Amino acid sequence: MDSDTLLARITDYANRPDPYPLYAELREAGPVVRQADGSYLIGTYHEVAALLHDPRMSVDPRTCGETTHKPPFLRLDDPEHHRLRTLAMRPFGPPHSPGRVDAMRGEIVQLTGELTEPFQAGGRIDIVDDLAYPLPVTVICRLLGVPREDEPLFRAWSDALVASADVRPEADSSGRDEAGAEAGEQARGEMGRYLAGLAEKRRGNPSDDLLSAFVNEPDPALRLTQEELAETAVLLLIAGHETTVNLIANGVLTLLRQPEQLDQLRREPDLLPRAVEELLRYEPPVHMRQRIPLADIDIGGTTLPAGASVVLALASGNRDPKRFHAPDRFDPTRPDNQHLGFGSGIHLCYGAPLARIEAEAALGALIPRLGTARLVQDPPPYRQNAMLRGPRHLPVHL
After folding, report:
1. Is the pLDDT higher at 317 or at 228?
2. C-alpha span between 29 and 25 (Å, rounded)
């Protein structure tokens, strides 16, 4: 098949269970492969990493006229990105010091225990619905200060937002995609208004949560506007659980397919942090990121023209044999594992420390129970989104 259809094939749902042969094809054709829709697809580690650190690569969809609405800081360039990201991170504590997230480790382990306690040998569970989803969504709601009874509101909103955030080849765009984008914007607006309203209730009456910290900031220079607060709260809630759902579910699926490594982790639980890093390389929760060059950029012998759509295949870079030894092997003892699982550069995943703690807690609680477990369905049904790739359900017989 022609290399100019690779993005269309990677995003085709039929290839969601195993896109890795397509990533290998991409690296063979690359490092830069122009697609039929005019976009550029890049899947080699060193080129992806270089462009993630290149200040000439924009994340702002307004750069190419996709929208006129100011996006959340995840989709903004510096200096505005730096300003909003810094303000959003202030309540987490000073950089490089134990902060609010580290302080929650015991609470996260306790919550994981509560969620896994009903899991009985001989029973059947859905890893996604019974653990991978409720754990991170409960944690981020507690951090923000969302009442527990309101947590179910966010699933429909999150699903609509994630569906609208996928990477799609232009040639495949249709009215259905436009409807999805509209549904995503509607969900973003509803969630933002809800969270902004919740924050207003904390004004002058704070509790120990992020919404209270945002709305009661005493220094005018450090305050978020009402619009910025709503956008930031939505981003924290979505980013605070979506990638972790995939990380946990992909992790369990990988371990059940790799009984020797599962047994090794049961015998050597101290390997778990390194195993999580290897999962972030081997089966990352985020597969692709989109960028727009602000100027012509030469990379890998090709010129990326200003204003073009550039898709960086992080998951392909994570399997690049020029960077990783035996990249298609899951190795929880792997040294020098500088993966792209959380991206890199100034847009390195904001929630990475929290995701790592949650994944370690979830897998640490599950591994002793998975000895004789088996997958009910392999491959499992996957979510539609090709960029945030993970099982929609993962039924397991314990």
Report:
1. 317
2. 6
Cβ atoms within 10 Å, residue 344: 21
Chain centroid, CA 328 distance in Å: 21
pTM across the whole model:
0.90
DSSP designation for 149: G
Nearest CA-CA partner of 277 in 325, 346, 324, 334: 334
The sign one gets for the Cα dihedral 169, 344, 50, 338 is negative
Model confidence pLDDT, tens digit, residues 50-71 = 999 999 999 988 877 666 677 7
Q: How far apart, in whole angstroms, are the C-alpha atoms of residue 166 and residue 287?
A: 10
Residue recorded with tokens 């807690």? 361
pLDDT tens digits, residue range 79-95?
888 888 888 887 766 55
The residues, any chain, with a CB within 8 Å of residue 94's CB and separated by 6 or more, are none
Domains of the chain plus CATH, in order, are 3-397 (1.10.630.10)
Rounded Cα distance between 243 and 246, Å, is 5
d(CA 177, CA 166) in angstroms, rounded, equals 10
Phi-psi region of 16 (alpha: psi -120 to 50; beta: other; left: phi over 0): alpha
